[in-house]
Every structure is written in structure tokens, then in C-alpha cells.
Design brief:
Blueprint (H helix, E strand, L loop, with lengths): L1 H18 L1 H8 L3 H5 L12 H14 L3 E8 L5 E7 L2 H4 L2 H13 L5 H10 L2 E6 L7 H16 L3 H9 E6 L3 H14 L31 H14 L3 E6 L8 E2 L13 H20 L5 E2 L12 H6 L4 E7 L8 E3 L24 E3 L1 H21 L1 H21 L4 E4 L6 H13 L5 E3 L3 E3 L2 E3 L4 E4 L5 H8 L11 H4 L23 H5 L4 E3 L7 E3 L9 E3 L5 E4 L4 H12 L5 E3 L3 E3 L2 E3 L4 E4 L5 H11 L2 E5 L7 E3 L5 E4 L6 H12 L4 E4 L1 H6 L8 E4 L4 H6 L15 H13 L3 E5 L2 H8 L4 E3 L14 E7 L12 E6 L5 E3 L10 E5 L6 E3 L12 E8 L2 E6 L13
Parallel strand pairs: 3-4, 3-5, 5-8, 6-7, 18-24, 26-27, 26-28, 28-29, 29-37
Antiparallel strand pairs: 1-2, 2-4, 6-8, 9-10, 11-15, 11-16, 12-15, 12-17, 13-14, 19-23, 19-24, 20-23, 20-25, 21-22, 30-33, 31-32, 31-34, 31-35, 34-36, 36-37
Helix pairs in contact: 6-7, 6-15, 7-15, 8-14, 9-14, 12-14
Amino acid sequence: TYLKKYLFISAIFSFVLLLSPSIGIAQKIPPPEEFFGFKAGADFHLLNYEQAVDYWKKLEKLSGKIKLFEYGKSSEGKTMIFAVISSEENMAKLDHYKELSKRLSLVRGLADEEAGSLASEGKAIVWIDGGLHATEVAPAQHIIQLTYDLLTDSSQKIKKILDEVIAMLVLPNPDGMDMVAEWYKSNLGTPYEASRLPWLYQKYIGHDNNRDSFMLSVPEMQNINQVVNHEWYPHIFYNHHQTSPFPSLIFVPPDCEPTNPNLHPLLLRWQNFIGTAIAMAFESEGKQGVISRFLFDTWYPGYVTQVCDFHNIISTFSETFLYSYATPYFYTVEDFPEEYKDFTISLFFTNPWEGGWWHLRDAVEYCLTASKAVLDLAAKHREELLYAKYAMGKETMERYQKEPPYGWIIPLEQRDSPAAAQLINKLITLDLEVYQAESSFQADGVSHPKGTYILPTSQPFGRFLKTLFEIQTYPDLRRYPSLWQSIVEPIKLKVPPLRTYDVLGWTLPLQMGVKTFTMNTPLDIKVKRIKMASPPKAKISGSAHYAYVIPYKTNNSVIAINRLLKEGADVMWARESFRAEGKTFSPGAVIVPLSKFSLTKMKKLAGELFLQVLRIKRPPSVKTYKLKLPRVALYKPWRSNMDEGWTRLILENHEFPYTSVHNAEIKAGRLENRFDVIILPNQGMNSIINGHPKGTMPPKFVGGISRSGVRNLRQFVENGGTLVALGSSSNLLVKEFNLPLKNVLTSLKSEDFFASGLLIKVAFDQNHPIAYGMPEEAAGFFAHSPTFQTLPVLKEQEQPLVVGKYPEENIILSGWMLGEKYLQNRAAVVEVPFGKGKIILLGFRVQHRGQTVGT
């Protein structure tokens, strides 16, 4: 009968489904276009973070091959989630494979034979992310398509990947992904469809999130570090970016010069191998436009990939071509730079693109090809990858047992002890080993007490310690043409210096103002490893009842002043050095009468901030300034100004109340009625005054402060306000306010002066309030920073006061520059009296990326 036939056919069909699980899964798991209503990477469509996570959650319910993990909150409070995909057998043993990877990574306690056994048993853990830089939209969109492909593709290639690899798929910037999707959607179909996001796509640091990977100033980078360096210990870390150098369609390693000399040679070979494998995949699929050894180098260690490299994780990254968001564009040869119009091939650009349409989906497909190539390589070379990580750590440990630098010593006595503890705890957070001496000792002729911090280079990630602590000596590439020219007969060219992609010098103890000693000889003493460093405990000495005195030498003392003022205490600054109760205090010492702040409150404040407080019995014989909580405004342009974001973060970290002000508020005037201080972040003069041209952005976001805004700033200072200019914004005030100063670098050519980011020596006038608490000399971060010469004035009261200047010789502390002579004896920090107020010009980058704790 019909019913019997129907039941028989149904039974056969069910049996087939049981025998063919991949068919069943493919039917159950919806493709992105079914779930969202459009393909991942479709023209004019961008998935936001919530949509992506919703899709992941749906797939997690349908498949045993995917599991989601939470790993903290974003800066805006979003739950950060990543997906792990592997075979069901592997998913059942994730904790076991994580532990194997951890043991191979940390090396200690393993012999070669056992390491080999663990490498044979383990699985390759591969991190693939997309969207760290949120306006580079294709990588995040491809993560969703890659998830679907890995779960539904029944090919032998994907089956092997799932058997041999544990894939971690990550959307590392949830806030930015949502911001960009919303911004694009709001402008879709308007003349502003391709306009830039007018604010940072990370709450504080925007594009610099990829430069925050050793300082870990924001939650997103802290969360990534926790997952990568404390929990999962991946073997490959793939960081997707856009855009490639036009008219290439994707950049993949090998990278260009210079190469950081502390990178392990085995790691560099693996990176080149992976890059070649990616390029091979593109050529096999007939995809044009792959380029290597162009633009991107490995010199700076602050990128997320570089921090991975120094943890013996083989990192790779790519830059896929981008037009603008999800809007397509048709390119002709006429759009190409002249040198690319004839499609000449080279060894690292073997198949030039010839133009045509470029869609977001094209970029997604390029990302997919690259990601799958990396996963395929990991599957084929799983055991070698696992063992390589162990081998690099072991070799580093053995090498620095035999040769200097054997490590670094951080003394207990520091000008800013909380900053020293901050540095040590950063290192511990980065999974570096830190020890304390269990008895006093001598090293290289210097005596050190019990408890001194010791950082040996002989540890699995010792090369990372070395690259953070040593002085950088940048190789002037003009001297080494054979390293980068790749031609039969290298030519020594008389050209301007060849710049790096990022900064040249970054020695972290110098930036943070922490004293260290290099260990040039082996140290054989008893030590104990620590999990956290603490500054010396707070101390309130003396029993007198007139006032507290707090030395003004630590950044915590700034926080203390702000808290005291908020509590209603009277707070004075000593204008010069003085003695009290047998102790000498430097200018800037904080004096707080006991009558307005109880001992109970001071004990709490001192304990939280590690303050050293003295109680005195009578008013000290010293002139003082009475402090008040300033009304601070921070200029916030309608553009993604990272310096503004870093400044905002640092104000918050030091508990300064502030108000962000936009162009309209500055143009409205009467600023002196609302604010005592206005801060202009590092930004070019034209950009501040004129902003975005009309027609390039929605009307609300075009223009700058305009000439009327400049007049209002002038009026603000004339009426008693303080205007602080950071970096390049100084040029605006020098010119528009006709200040008696000259930026001596303005007219220099690149062949005469070049300084793209290094640490240089700055000498300070410690008797000026701006430099209260500073040492006589400190390291300043310099990147083509305004450098001032004072000019004659008619009235003495208008004479600029030089608070910080560059010395006559030995200016460079770490890194390299051309034209050092142009800085000799020039001003770096200047206060200019102006009307009833003053202008403060901070030429060098006093708060660069939150790293320059010392300034």
C-alpha cells in the first residue's frame, strides 16, 4: 500500500542520514545568508557584533564541533566571546590539549623526549581573529563565513583540519564592530556612504589597540593577553587586517626590513613558511595580487603579533585590500600608481591584479583563502609546530645561561616605587618570570638588599624581556643595501633615511622612569618567584598635629591631590625646597592641614596609594601655592584622534574630572566661564582649524574650530585661562597667537632631520611647577615633535619660560635619529605668559600610548 511504501522510503532515508552525518549537519546548520538574509560580505551590508554572536550561539546548539567561551568585558561593557571549532573528539578533550600546549610553552620540567611525546599527542591550536581594527571590515565578516565552512565542509582537507587543529575564531573589538556597522548603515545611500568614522573605534585608543599589547592599558588587550598567554597557549596566531598597499590585493609575509634582532630565527623561518603557504594557496586558486616584503616590518614589539612572537607563538598577519566598508568600487589601470601600470612582475609580486570590480565579498574570499591555508599548514605540520614552540623556549633558556645579558635587576629604591611595581606587574601579566632575592648580594660591583627584583633572561620568553629592557640600536638601512634591495648588485643610495613602520626606540624602564641594572655576569643566589609586586607599604610618621606633608615624586601623589581636593581638604604646594622634622622636601611637596582631613582618612588614602606621609607640628618656612580642583576641558575633534583618547584615559586613571569639548563649543566662546584649563591633543594646525572639508562627512561633523574658535581660545587665555598644547598642536598657538617662539624643525628636509619615534634626554627645571617632582633628567618620547627656540621680547613679563630642554650632547637614549644637532639646547617644554593667563607647550610626547609613565 501507499502507507507501507511511504514508511519504507522514510526508513531508508533516515538510515542514509545516520550513515552520513555531514549531510545531516549541512541541512541543520543554516548558512549566513539564510540566518541574516544576506551573505557575509554582501554589498552594502555589515554584520554587527550582536548578530555574529547570535549566529554563533545558534550553531553551538546545532553542532558538537563548536563551543563558545567568554573572556571578559570590552571597554563599553560588552561580553567578549570567541568560538572554538574542532572535531567532536577533540572538543571532548579541550582541557587536556590546552594543558599539553601550556607545558610545551613553559618548557620547565620537560626533557626533549617527553616534549616530543607531548608534541606527538597534542593538537595545533590556531588563533584567527578579524576586526581588531574595526574599520577594516572584511576580516570580521569572514570569521562568520569561516565558522560555517569549517562546520559544514565535508572535504578531506577540512576533515583533517578538524582532526589535527583546534581553531579559535575571535572578534576582538566588539565595540568597534558595532560602531562601524551602525555608522555605515546610517550613511548608506547618502553622499557620505564612504565617509570616515568621526570618533575612535575603541573607547580610548582606537587604532592604537594594536600597539597596546605589552602595556595592556585597555580591557580588550588585557583579555586577549589572558587567553593567549595564560590559558590557551596557541601555536599560530593569525591577525587579519586591511588594507594592502595598492594595487596589490593582499599582503602576506615575508615582511620587509628592519627585523627585530631578538626574534628567534626559527620563528622567522616559520613565518616565512606560513606566508609562502598562503601565497601558494592564492596562486592555486587563481587569485591575483599577492605581495610580500613590502611596507610592513617586525621592528616594533608592541603589536599583538609581535608580543605573540616573543612568546614563541608563530604569528602571521595579512593586509587585504579595502575600498570602503561594504561599498564596491570599479578600478581601472588609470587608478594605479605609474610604476604598476604595466603589470611588471617580481619575485614577491608574481601575479599583479589588473583592475576591475572590488567588492567586500572579494575581500572576504581573500581572507578565507588565507585562513584556510594557515589551518591546512597547521594540520599538515602539527607535530613540528608543537615541538618548535618548546625548542625555541629551551634554546632561549640555554643561550642566556651562557651569555649576557643574563638579565636585569630592579632595585627596591626607586624615585617612583609604584611605577616600578607597575612595570614588574606588567611583566608578570605578560607571563614573564620575576624573582626576588632571598638575601643581600652583589652584582657587577653593586650591592643589593634582600627582596631586590631579579629578571633573568634565561627563561622561555627571555627574548621578550630583552627586547623590552635593552637599549634599541636601530640599523640605518642605507648601510645595508643587501638586506632589503634584493637585486644582483646592491647599490648604496644617497637617499633620506629608510623609516620603520612604527617607532624606533621604546626601552620600557626608561619610559616608565624605573631604575634598572643590566646583569653582565651570571648571578648565583637563592631567589623565589613572585606572582605580584607591591611598592613599599604606606607610612605615616611623626605625631605632630599641624599638617601632613606628602613628597611629590610619584604619579600616585597626583591622584592623592585630586582625592584630597574632592574631599574638601586644603591642599598647598611648596614653591621651593624646605626642611621639616629633620627631613628635606623638594619643590612641589604637598602640605595638607590636619584640621580639614582626619588621620583616619589619611591612613586610608596613604594605604591605597602607597604614600609616605610625615606629620609636622608647625607651618613650614616656605612659600606655597593653594591648589584647587581645576575645571578641565579636553578638545575632542570629529576625527579618530588617538592622542585625544590616550589623554582622556590618562586623565581618568589619575582621577582628573574633565569635560570633552567639540568644535561647536569652542566656536561658541566664553570658555573662561566654564573652564580653567583647556587641553589640545596632538593634532595638526590645519586639521584643528578646518577639520573635514564640506561634502566629505555629514554636515554635523565637517569643519574645525574655525578662525572664530582660535579667537575664542585666545580670549580664554587673555582672561586668565591656561591652554595646554600637546605635540603638534603647539604649532597652532605659536603661529596664530604670534608667540615669541620658533619651531626649529619646521623648515628642515628629511635628508637633514629624521626622528620617527625614539627616547631622548630631557633636562628639567625642577623649581618650576610644571616640572615639580621630575628628576633633573628623564627620557622623553620624541617623534618629529615641535622643538622651540625662544625669541626676543619687548616686555620681560612676556618672556617664555623654558621648563624642559634637550641637552647639548648625548641626547639619544634609545633608538636612532638623524640631525641630533638641531635639538641641542633647544626647548622641549615651555610656559608662555599671555594676558592674564598662560600657555603651556609640551613638545615631546609626554603621554605616548600610555607607556611614558615617567613623564
